[in-house]
Amino acid sequence: MSRAAAIVLSLLAALLVAAGCxxxxxDSGDDGSTAAAAQCEPGELQTVADGQLTVxxxxxxxxxxxxxxxxxxxxxxxxAVAYAIAxxxxxAPDQVEWTVVPFNASFAPGPKDFDFDxxxxxxxxxxxxxxxxxxxxxxxxxxxxxxxGSDAAQATSLADLADANIGVQIGTTSLEAVExxxxxxxxxxxxxxxxxxxxALKQDQVEAIVVDVPTAFFLTAVQVPxxxxxxxxxxxxxxxxxxxxxxxxxxxxxxxxxxxxxxxxGELQRIEDRWMSEVAGAPTLE
Length: 286
Description:
By secondary structure, the chain is α/β, with parallel strands linked by helices. It contains 10 helices and 10 strands. The longest helix has 36 residues, at 3-38.
C-alpha cells in the first residue's frame, strides 16, 4: 500500500469514528432529557426530608391565601396551589409537612429547611440573586384603597384620582403604577415601609394608597377595616409570584414543571377562580 493510500484510509477511518461519536452524542442528548425528566419522579427528588415535601409560609396565614390560619387544610389559594404542586410531584396530602418561615427570612441568602415557600413572594432580580424562583403561579394587578366616605372612595376611573394625594411604598411596582397609569397632578407621597403607608392612610395623611390587589383585600379585612377597595387596574410591572426555593435547588425545575402542567391543564386557573373570586370581582378603573 502506498503512503498516500494509507493516509487516505486513515482519514476515512477517522471520519467514520467521528460520525459514530456524533451519533452517540445525539443519543446522549435524548438520554439527558430523559434523565432530567426522571429526576422529577418521586423516588428521585432530593427533598429536605426523605419521602416528605416540606412547604413553608408565614404565620399568621391570612385569607384568601389560607383559611382559618391553617395551611394544612388545603383551603385558600396558596394552600390549594401548594397541594396541587405536591400532587404533580407525586406526594399525597399526608406527605406534605408545613413549616413557618417569616416573609423576609424566606428570601435571605443561605440554606433552607424547606423544599419551597409560598407566601405572596414577588419574583424580583434582587431576590433571584439569593434564591431560586419557580415559574409564576399568579400575577397581581394594582389596587387603590381609600377610607370609606372619602372623596377618593367615590372614584370610578383613574382620571378621578388625578388630584388625589396618594401614598405608596418606595421602590415598589405600585409607585411605578401610580406614575404611569394614574399620573397624579402632584407627586405621590413615598414611604419607607408598607406599615408606614397604611399608617398614613389611617391618619389621613394621604387620601388613598396603591398596593397590589390581594394585599388590598388583606388590608381592608384586617389592618384597615374602615377602608374600601376603590378599584383595580392593570399597570406596568405587575407582580408575578413564584414558589421560592434554595439557590440552585435541584427541585426548582421540577416545581416549575409542576406549575406549568397545572397552568396548561387549566387547574391553576380553577384554583384561582375558586379562592380569588373576590379579587376578580373588584371594580376595574380605566
